[in-house]
Design a protein that fits this description.
This protein is about 80% helix and about 0% strand. By secondary structure, the protein is mainly α. The chain folds into 2 domains: about 50 residues; about 130 residues, Four Helix Bundle (Hemerythrin (Met), subunit A) (Up-down Bundle), CATH 1.20.120. The radius of gyration is 27 Å and the shape is elongated.
Length: about 190
Amino acid sequence: MRTERRYPWMIWAIVALALMNVTTFATILVRTDRTVKSGLSRLTEQTESESSSLRYSGRYFRDHLNLTRQQMSRFTEFNPEFRKNAREINISLADLRQQMMMEMAAETSDTMKLNEISDSIGRLHTLLKKITWEYYLDFKEICNKDQEAKLEEIFASMFTVDDQEFRHGPRGFRNPPGRGQGRQFSN
């Protein structure tokens, strides 16, 4: 009789242990998948940033606009300063966006702080647009008519919503129509 009573309890113990093992493995798989996806997301952002940086480098403009040596010499006078300033602004924008997200996600969000961050983001966007149009006008000044037309095409592509950006937005968020313009200069 004693063995008959123990037998059902042993079966339940084995079933419980098996369920625990299955849930442990499932948890490990889910966490590993999240970690891999997170790493891939960061790698994709970094690659896109590097690709964008190369896309609008001196070599890119030289090749696409067929710049002469004299034009390249003048280009190297204003390009490094623009790239440095645009990079600094984009780093600051990324930092402010992160601060804003942290404040919004806080238990009790400080709306005054969120307003300050929003205003700071707006000022930096304004500054980025200003240095961009100054850069464009400097560039346009060294171009002939054919090069000006190509330059306009290049800059027009920078200021339109990229289809990928529109669908997924920065870091997976969806952007409403009209958002994300000019984001090609992002770090």
